[in-house]
Structure formats: C-alpha cells, structure tokens
Specification:
Length: 407
C-alpha cells in the first residue's frame, strides 16, 4: 500500500481571479467602520437543531452502576436464575439514577423510567435482549431512557450491554441520540450537531460536544474519536475553510423543547501561517482550548487563527482508499503566530511498520501504519476485512507465506 501512497501527488490547477476593484474598495471602506472581530454583515446565522435518534452508536462509555443485592419492593415477576439489580448512574447527580432489574434467564431488562422505585408501572421500560434468553452477555438495543441534559430531560436512545463475571457486574452504554441540523455558511452546507455527555452532568467539566461535517456526509455513521469526523468539546469559535465564526448554543425556548439553537457570527481574528508538508490530507481538524479549525483538502500552506493547537485529527484519501488519525495531542502542540511560520508534519506518504517480539515459542507482530511525522493511522475499512498476510524471507529467497486467522 505504501508504494501507492508514495506515487500519489496532488495536482493543482491555476485559476484566474478577476478583482472587482470598486466593490472591494467599498467593502474595505465599510469594514473600517466595524469593530474588531466583527463582519460588515455581522448578523448571526442561526441554525435550529432537532433532537433525533440515529441508526448507529456514536459514543461509547462504561456506565457506573450501584448494585443492589435485594429485590425492589415492586418489580415484575422474575423466574429463578441469574438476576442483576441496581441503579444506572448518569453523572454525579443522584437524581439522574435509574433503577433496573435484568432478568438474565428471561432475557429481559426492566427500567424504572418514572423514578418512583416501582418497576411494575413502566410499560415502556421493558426491553428484550438481542441475544435471547439465558445468555450471560445481554444486549438491549434502542433503549430510550430519560437523561438530564443542559436543555432539560430528553428521552435518549442507547444500546446497553449488561454482563457479569463472578461477583462483578458491568454495563456498557452507546449513545444514539443528539441534536442535528443544517448550516449554510459562506455558500457551503454543513451538518452540525450537539450532544451532551451523560456522565458529565454535575462534574463541572465540558458538558457539550460539537459535530461539524460536510452536508454530503450526513448519512454516514460516525463514532466519537474515530478521526474521520470532527467532534470536539463545544468551542466558542469555529474556523471553516478560511472563515471564522463565533459560536453560541442556546435553548429554542419553552415553546419548542425538542430544539436547540446554534448562532454562527462571522469574526475576523488574527491569522498566522501554518505549513503542511505531508501529502494526501483530505481533512484536517485542529483543536485549541476555545477554537475548532476544519480544513478541507488544504494546500501546503494555510492561514488559521492565531492559537496554540493541542490536538489534531487527520483524514487522508487517495482514490477510494482512506486512512484516519484519531484526535490526540501533538508532541508539544503547534503554536501559530501572526509572524513567522509554524509547521505541522502529518499525512503521507504512509509507511507500513511491523515490530516483532518473541513471547515464549510464539512471535508477536505489532503492526503500525506510520505517517510523515511518525504518527499512526488506521485504514478505513470498506466491506469485509481482509486477513493480514505475511511472508518470510532469507535474503531474497521467500521461505514461507500465509494469512493470519482471527482468534
């Protein structure tokens, strides 16, 4: 694969730009009367977001559980066999807890949706396991639970995995609901979304996260931290392909509790030069404490807001092949100033790298796909995964080859 990446080079074509001097002059004159950080057309673009379920899991976490050894005073009739009881905890606020009973033998989950500790009066709170009766690993899909958010309590879709080993019990949760809408900024359409971290309620940390991606990708599943889709803690400023916007989220009002509003107000922050010597960058997302930068197919030199960026996610593309780097802190970050030029070495060409270690009588192969700066990537899989192959050489002579089996 590496050879294909190395042979690929971006081709650019020169364009002809006609300057309308009288228009530019009038805009410049108008801009002189504007305060710093605003646009001549400073009216905010307000986007209405609707709280929706999506047909995929976008955020995974381990859900804290307060186990209960004794039955609840009122709970559905449950046969003999393994039973898990307790309270699902969403954040540090105990009022967000939800009592539940998991009947392993019956393959059923009963949740106290109205939080009155009566598990017999919640007809919408009973769910059937996708793995059937008796399985020690129970999976319940499309479970709607009342979860507190900054905009109030929302019926939130989740997938729940419940399982236990000896005396320990675990619950894994996957989020499937968020606010979604469409924003048209500088003539381009984007899908924007917001979701609240259910575990952050009452912790004082970052509660909201922002999704931004081209509107054409709106039906594609994504997962937080996959590197392919920019999702970050809700910033106060976003920079999309050369335009900066202040960002404010607010409730739509009591008359429409299912909606949220995002206001994008054009700004003009100081910009600095950032060099990108790597190749094949299809999308680059940079994060600072308050700013999210998204660059689609950036050139070798770009202008971005003056900031210290502490994390970067990268999506590479060559033909139909894609590779992604999950957002993670860069070594020391990259500081962009108004003077001088900063460099961020990410992207191709990519190099296949394998470390081989002996473990007893076995050889352990650790594979990495490395970028221009030594960063690691993962190939975006399309369809069924192909089994990794190997070949052993002695000098130029192939001794043996084969494929690895999963297991």
């Amino acid at each position: 694969m590496n050879a294909a990446w190395q042979r690929m080079a971006w081709r650019t074509s020169a364009g002809v730009c006609v300057l309308l001097c009288w228009l530019a002059g009038s805009r410049a004159a108008a801009a002189e009367d504007q305060p710093t950080g605003t646009s001549p057309a400073a009216a905010a673009t307000t986007v209405s977001l609707e709280f929706r379920d999506v047909p995929y899991a976008l955020y995974h976490w381990s859900l804290p559980v307060d186990e209960r050894p004794a039955p609840f005073e009122k709970e559905p009739q449950i046969g003999s066999g393994k039973v898990f009881r307790g309270t699902l905890q969403f954040g540090k606020d105990k009022t967000n807890g939800l009592a539940f009973v998991c009947d392993v033998e019956g393959g059923k989950l009963h949740v106290d949706l109205n939080r009155n500790l009566d598990l017999t009066d919640d007809p919408a709170g009973s769910f059937t396991s996708a793995y059937g009766r008796g399985s020690t690993y129970q999976m319940f899909t499309n479970v709607h639970l009342p979860v507190a958010t900054l905009a109030g309590v929302r019926s939130t879709a989740m997938d729940l995995n419940l399982y236990g080993f000896e005396n320990r019990f675990f619950v894994g949760a996957s989020l499937r609901s968020l606010w979604l809408g469409q924003a048209t900024l500088d003539g381009r359409e984007w899908q924007v979304g917001v979701f609240d971290d259910p575990l952050a309620q009452g912790t004082g940390g970052t509660l909201r996260h922002l999704l931004v991606r081209p509107w054409a990708e709106r039906e594609q599943p994504f997962r937080i931290g996959d590197g392919a889709t920019p999702v970050v803690g809700l910033p106060t400023q976003v920079f999309l392909n050369g335009r900066a916007y202040g960002l404010v989220a607010s409730d739509a009002g009591a008359g429409d509790p299912s909606r949220l509003k995002l206001a994008f107000t054009e700004q003009h922050p100081g910009l600095g030069e950032l060099r990108l010597p790597g190749q094949f960058i299809h999308r680059l997302a940079l994060e600072s404490g308050s700013c999210l930068v998204i660059l689609e197919q950036p050139g070798a030199v770009v202008k971005v807001p003056v900031e210290r960026y502490t994390a970067a996610s990268v999506r590479l593309r060559q033909g139909e092949v894609e590779a992604v780097r999950s957002p993670r802190p860069a070594a020391g970050g990259v500081a962009v100033a108004e003077t001088g030029s900063a460099a961020l070495v990410v992207g191709g060409p990519l190099t296949n790298s394998v470390n081989v270690n002996r473990r007893g009588r076995a050889l352990v192969f650790n594979y990495q796909l490395l970028g221009a700066g030594g960063e690691t990537y993962q190939v975006v899989r399309q369809g069924a995964r192909k089994a990794p192959e190997f070949a052993v050489f002695q000098g130029d002579t192939k001794i043996t080859s084969g494929k690895f089996e999963f297991g």
